[in-house]
C-alpha cells in the first residue's frame, strides 16, 4: 500500500460550542458545509454550533448533525490541501462522516439522517430510563460475562456496547442494571467506572426500535459505492459496496461499536498514520492505547491543520 493513511471521524461526546469556527471564517469550502447543513435541516445549525446554548447542543438530535457538520467541514479543508487516505472509519456517528468523505452518501442526506437517528435513539428509551458507563481496567471478556450475569439477575438490559481500546469498554442498558454493574465491576477490580452524561443507552438492544425506524429512512437515501474502504463499526470489516454499507448503518444503531478491532483491521492492512478529522482528540487517545507505534494526528482548527500538513510534507 503506497498510501498508509486512514481518516477517522469522532462520534458523540466530542462536541463543544464554537467548534471549527476558525475554518468557517477562513475557508469557503468549510463555510459551504455549514450553509448546506442549515439548508438541509431548515434551521440554523451553524448558530447552534457557534453560539449554543450548550444544553441544546448536547441534545442527541442536535449533537449528531452538529458533529457531522463540523467533521465534514474539517474534511473539506483537508481535501483542499491535497491529503488523501487509503481507508477510513468513524466511531458510531463518525461512520456517517467517513461515508460522506468516501462519497457513499451525500452530506445533505447524511445530516438529515443523523438528525432523525438522534431523535429515534432518544425516543426508543424515555429520558432517565437508560444509562451508560465507561469501565476502565478490565478485559472485554470480564465485562461481557459481568453484564450477562447482571442481565440474568435483573431481567433487564445491560450490555457491553463500545470496545474502544485496551482497558476501556462502555456498557449500556436500563439504569438499575447499569448501576449494579458499576458496583460489580468495582468489586471485580476495575480501575474506574465512570457514568456517562448521555441521554440514552446507545448501541444496546434497547435501541432496536430506533434501528427499525432508521432502516425506513435509509431506504429513501441514495447510496453509492465508497471511493475507499470504510471499516464498519458492526463487524470491523472494510466495505465499499453501497448495499452492505446501508445494512451496516441499520445494524450499527443497536449493535456494539467494535472500534479496537476496526483499528486493528486498518493496521493489518498497512495503515501507519491515523488522522482524526473533526472536533476533539478522543480517537487519537484510543490510537495511542491500541498501538503506540502508529501516528495519531488530528484536524480541528488552524493549528492542528498546520501540524498535520507539516507532518505529511516531512514524510513525503
What would you call the shape?
globular
Helix/strand class: alpha/beta
**Discrete helix count:** 14
Secondary-structure element sequence?
EHHHHHEHHEHEEHEHEEHHEHEH
Largest sheet composition: 6 strands, mixed
- End-to-end Cα distance, whole Å, is 15 Å
Write the layout of secondary structure elements.
Elements: E1 5-9, H1 21-26, H2 28-41, H3 45-51, H4 54-57, H5 60-80, E2 87-90, H6 94-101, H7 107-124, E3 130-136, H8 140-154, E4 158-165, E5 168-174, H9 175-187, E6 192-195, H10 208-218, E7 230-231, E8 238-239, H11 242-252, H12 259-268, E9 273-277, H13 282-290, E10 295-299, H14 302-315
Parallel strand pairs: 1-2, 1-9, 2-7, 9-10
Antiparallel strand pairs: 3-5, 3-6, 4-5, 7-8
Helix pairs in contact: 2-5, 2-7, 3-5, 5-6, 5-7, 7-10, 8-9, 10-11
Description of the molecule:
- The chain has 316 residues and is α/β, with parallel strands linked by helices.
- The chain has helices spanning 21-26, 28-41, 45-51, 54-57, 60-80, 94-101, 107-124, 140-154, 175-187, 208-218, 242-252, 259-268, 282-290, 302-315, and strands at residues 5-9, 87-90, 130-136, 158-165, 168-174, 192-195, 230-231, 238-239, 273-277, 295-299.
- The chain has a six-stranded mixed beta sheet, with helices on both faces. A four-stranded antiparallel beta sheet has the order 4-5-3-6.
- β4 and β5 (168-174) form a beta hairpin.
- α2 packs antiparallel against α5, α5 packs antiparallel against α7 (107-124) and α10 (208-218) runs antiparallel to α11.
- It starts with a strand and ends with a helix.
Amino acid at each position: 500500500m503506497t498510501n498508509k493513511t486512514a481518516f477517522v471521524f469522532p462520534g458523540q461526546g466530542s462536541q463543544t460550542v464554537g467548534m471549527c469556527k476558525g475554518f468557517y471564517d477562513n475557508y469557503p469550502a468549510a463555510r459551504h458545509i455549514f450553509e448546506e447543513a442549515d439548508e438541509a435541516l431548515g434551521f440554523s445549525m451553524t448558530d447552534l454550533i457557534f453560539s449554543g446554548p450548550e444544553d441544546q447542543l448536547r441534545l442527541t438530535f442536535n449533537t449528531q448533525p452538529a458533529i457531522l457538520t463540523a467533521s465534514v467541514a474539517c474534511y473539506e479543508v483537508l481535501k483542499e490541501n491535497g491529503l488523501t487516505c487509503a481507508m477510513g472509519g468513524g466511531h458510531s456517528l463518525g461512520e456517517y462522516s467517513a461515508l460522506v468523505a468516501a462519497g457513499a452518501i451525500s452530506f445533505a442526506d447524511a445530516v438529515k439522517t443523523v438528525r432523525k437517528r438522534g431523535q429515534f435513539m432518544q425516543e426508543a428509551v424515555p429520558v432517565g430510563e437508560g444509562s451508560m458507563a465507561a469501565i476502565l481496567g478490565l478485559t472485554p471478556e470480564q465485562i461481557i460475562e459481568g453484564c450477562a450475569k447482571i442481565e440474568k439477575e435483573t431481567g433487564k438490559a445491560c450490555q457491553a456496547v463500545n470496545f474502544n481500546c485496551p482497558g476501556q469498554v462502555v456498557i449500556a442498558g436500563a439504569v438499575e442494571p447499569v448501576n449494579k454493574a458499576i458496583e460489580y465491576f468495582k468489586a471485580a477490580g476495575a480501575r474506574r467506572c465512570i457514568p456517562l452524561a448521555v441521554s440514552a443507552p446507545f448501541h444496546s438492544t434497547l435501541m432496536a426500535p430506533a434501528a427499525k425506524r432508521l432502516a425506513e429512512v435509509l431506504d429513501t437515501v441514495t447510496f453509492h459505492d465508497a471511493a475507499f474502504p470504510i471499516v464498519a463499526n458492526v463487524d470491523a470489516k472494510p466495505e465499499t459496496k453501497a448495499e452492505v454499507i446501508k445494512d451496516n448503518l441499520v445494524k450499527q444503531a443497536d449493535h456494539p461499536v467494535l472500534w479496537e478491532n476496526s483499528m486493528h483491521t486498518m493496521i493489518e492492512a498497512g495503515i501507519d498514520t491515523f488522522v482524526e478529522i473533526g472536533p476533539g482528540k478522543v480517537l487519537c487517545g484510543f490510537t495511542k492505547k491500541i498501538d503506540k507505534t502508529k501516528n495519531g494526528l488530528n484536524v480541528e482548527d488552524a493549528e492542528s491543520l498546520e501540524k498535520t500538513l507539516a507532518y505529511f510534507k516531512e514524510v513525503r
